[in-house]
């Protein structure tokens, strides 16, 4: 198993070497990343012992969709929750691996920073950023962080409400660092009009048509991608007239699935008779 | 210590006992209230540490100050609860003043240890006490007791060898750094994508902060760990701010960390309890229970 792991990662590393040599082979790197990873991880993913109460509810099958979690704003603290709920629909892609360096007395210490975006092309997208000493660790960690950050994306119509929603419901803008990204609804057939990097995020989100405009130092692509993600987060935060109806509150999954204690069999009250 | 027993407003009806034997002479018992709202209150937990003397076979008690409770985002109500023990058909003991409590506790302890001796006759004694590293307790298989009183099922816990992780990563690091060195001199021909000026960034996710992510990493390394033991060490915390432990109520000396119970314990208990309707542990939703004991070596 050790050799297999080493062999896997060796091939992985060599693949990365070729990727670097090509210069901008992002897509190649992503594919190889996915293939190399799936090799040795199968058995460990099967046994998931949930740590949080939400995890236990999801594992038992009491919660069947992510929307129930979003409705009550419950924090998702285990990436296996997203795995269970979104399952095979979730695709991931490594957008960039870059070395970040820190100057120490003994030379430069290089770590790798991985940007991974996950999404199901239908309204859920997540972005993860992870720094680690090895590339494989960074990618794996970034995928986990991306799954923990999966958000719902609201889609709407540009004009006539026929067919499925295909664009953002309204003009929204997101900002990270000095980069601001503005998304404007577009008619059907316009496609995603954006730079190559945020276009990927928008494709994973399931948005088919949108006009974007950006401002600031978009060369810092880390901030650019995060600004796009912020922008997508805001789509559900925007109050539109459809939400004017009074909210009908429903029970949170914690309350709904907690078994009330059965009739107490032997209720014994201990009085505190301390004088 | 038992003078501070307070009543639970809703009338408690069951309890939870976990016994582990890391040494021949040490037994731990954890008591918690199963009432709906009390599971989240730190004061509804008590831990009892029973230590046998080697000279005489009479067990003596070292009450440990349970518990700093790390809970999830469920709000803790202001209900204080206590627990009752009616495991062997003992009547509920009214703990009034100190003189009574000592003798009753010893009776209780003797009875419980006799039951423990009966129950643990076939248990494998695999534990060893680590003072430096933490031993991870893993659940072997459940055994459900069928008495008339509401009792949660019992489990066997054993501690596996802790293997060091990280040697695999060390093997692979050579490859990646090698390939990087060969190509860092290649010029960037495309101007539009120059991911520039990135610096080291700490882990961040929408619902989880860095401390919790480190906690989760440890949990993922051994997904079934139920117990972490490290006398005098540092607890693995999921929140950044841990409440400070109280001082020992008997001797006044400070408390140090001894062990912590982890969430897989809850999961296994709930899985085992699913069938029976006598009691349910759903009211509990803590991530970890940290047990502090008196720092004095001799029992106080």
Query: What CATH architecture of the domain at 53-152 in chain A would you give?
Result: 2-Layer Sandwich
SSE class of chain B = alpha+beta
CATH topology of the domain at 53-152 in chain A: Double Stranded RNA Binding Domain
Average pLDDT, all residues of chain B: 55
The oligomeric state is heterodimer
Q: Tell the overall outline of chain B.
A: extended
Number of DSSP helical runs of chain B: 4
Q: Report the major sheet of chain B.
A: 6 strands, antiparallel
Number of helices of chain A: 10
Taking Cα atoms only, what radius of gyration of chain A do you get, to the nearest Å? 23 Å
Tell me what portion of residues of chain A adopts beta-strand conformation.
Answer: 15-25%
Could you tell me the strand content of chain B as a percent range? 15-25%
User: Reading side by side through the largest sheet of chain A, how are the strands ordered?
Assistant: 1-2-3-4
The residue ranges of chain A in which pLDDT falls below 50 over 5 or more consecutive positions are 1-41, 260-269
Ranges of chain B where pLDDT stays below 50 over 5 or more residues in a row are 1-24, 53-109, 115-151, 165-191
User: Which structural class matches the secondary elements of chain A?
Assistant: alpha+beta
* Top-tier CATH class of the domain at 53-152 in chain A: Alpha Beta
Major sheet attributes of chain A:
4 strands, antiparallel
> Can you count the beta strands of chain B?
9
Written description of the protein model:
Chain B: This is Programmed cell death protein 2 C-terminal domain-containing protein. Chain B: InterPro entries: PDCD2_C. Chain B: It comes from Musa balbisiana (Banana). Chain B: Pfam families: PDCD2_C. The complex is a heterodimer of chains A (275) and B (300). Chain A is built from ten helices and eight strands. Chain A is α+β, with helices and mostly antiparallel strands and 275 residues long. Chain A has a four-stranded antiparallel sheet, sandwiched between helices. In chain A, β2 and β3 form a beta hairpin. In chain A, α1 runs antiparallel to α2. Chain A is globular. The relative contact order of chain A is 0.11. Chain B is of the alpha+beta class. Chain B is built from four helices and nine strands, in the order ββββαββααββαβ. The longest helix of chain B has 22 residues. Chain B starts with 25 loop residues before the first strand and ends in a 6-residue tail after the last strand. The N terminus of chain B is likely disordered.
């Amino acid at each position: 198993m050790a050799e297999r792991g080493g062999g896997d990662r060796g091939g992985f590393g060599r693949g990365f070497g070729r990727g670097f040599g090509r210069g901008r082979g992002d897509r190649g790197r992503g594919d190889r990343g996915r293939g190399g990873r799936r090799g040795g991880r199968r058995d460990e993913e099967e046994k998931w012992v949930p740590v949080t109460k939400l995890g236990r509810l999801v594992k038992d099958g009491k919660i069947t969709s992510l929307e129930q979690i979003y409705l009550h704003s419950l924090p998702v603290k285990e990436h296996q929750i997203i795995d269970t709920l979104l399952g095979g629909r979730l695709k991931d892609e490594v957008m960039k691996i870059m070395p970040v360096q820190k100057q120490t007395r003994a030379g430069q210490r290089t770590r790798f920073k991985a940007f991974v975006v996950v999404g199901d092309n239908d309204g859920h997208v997540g972005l993860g950023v992870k720094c680690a000493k090895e590339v494989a660790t960074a990618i794996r960690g970034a995928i986990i962080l991306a799954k923990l950050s999966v958000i719902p994306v609201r889609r709407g119509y540009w004009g006539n409400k026929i067919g499925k929603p295909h664009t953002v419901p309204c003009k929204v803008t997101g900002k990270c660092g000095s980069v601001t990204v503005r998304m404007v609804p577009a008619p059907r057939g316009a496609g995603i009009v954006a730079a190559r990097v945020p276009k990927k995020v928008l494709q994973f989100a399931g948005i088919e048509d949108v006009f974007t405009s950006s401002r600031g130092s978009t060369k810092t692509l880390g901030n650019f991608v995060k600004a796009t993600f912020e922008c997508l987060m805001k789509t559900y935060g925007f109050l539109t007239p459809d939400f004017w109806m009074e909210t009908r509150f429903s029970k949170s999954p914690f309350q709904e699935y907690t078994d009330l204690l059965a009739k107490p069999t032997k209720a014994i009250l201990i009085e505190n008779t301390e004088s | 210590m038992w003078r501070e027993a307070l009543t639970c407003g809703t009338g408690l009806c069951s309890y939870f006992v976990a016994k582990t034997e890391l040494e021949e002479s040490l037994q731990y018992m954890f008591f918690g209230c199963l009432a709906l709202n009390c599971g989240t209150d730190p004061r509804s937990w008590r831990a009892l540490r029973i230590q046998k003397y080697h000279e005489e076979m009479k067990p003596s008690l070292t009450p440990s100050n349970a518990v700093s409770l790390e809970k999830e985002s469920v709000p803790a109500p202001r209900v204080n609860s206590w627990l009752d023990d009616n495991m062997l058909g003992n009547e509920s003991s009214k703990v009034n003043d100190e003189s009574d409590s000592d003798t009753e506790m010893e009776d209780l302890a003797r009875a419980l240890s006799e039951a423990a001796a009966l129950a643990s006759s076939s248990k494998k004694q695999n534990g060893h006490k680590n003072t430096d590293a933490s031993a991870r307790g893993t659940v072997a298989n459940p055994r459900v007791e069928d008495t008339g009183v509401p009792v949660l099922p019992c489990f066997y816990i054993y501690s596996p060898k802790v293997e060091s992780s990280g040697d695999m990563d060390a093997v692979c690091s050579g490859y990646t750094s090698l390939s990087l060195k060969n190509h860092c001199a290649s010029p960037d021909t495309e101007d539009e994508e120059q991911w520039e000026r990135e610096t080291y960034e700490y882990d961040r996710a929408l619902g989880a902060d860095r401390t919790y992510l480190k906690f989760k990493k440890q949990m993922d390394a051994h997904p079934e760990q139920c117990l972490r033991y490290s006398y005098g060490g540092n607890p693995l915390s999921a929140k950044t701010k841990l409440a400070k432990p109280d001082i020992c109520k008997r001797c006044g000396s400070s408390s140090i960390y001894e062990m912590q119970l982890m969430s897989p314990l809850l999961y296994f208990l709930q899985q085992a309890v699913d069938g029976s309707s006598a009691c349910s542990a759903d009211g509990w939703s803590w991530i970890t229970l940290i047990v502090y004991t008196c720092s004095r070596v001799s029992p106080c």
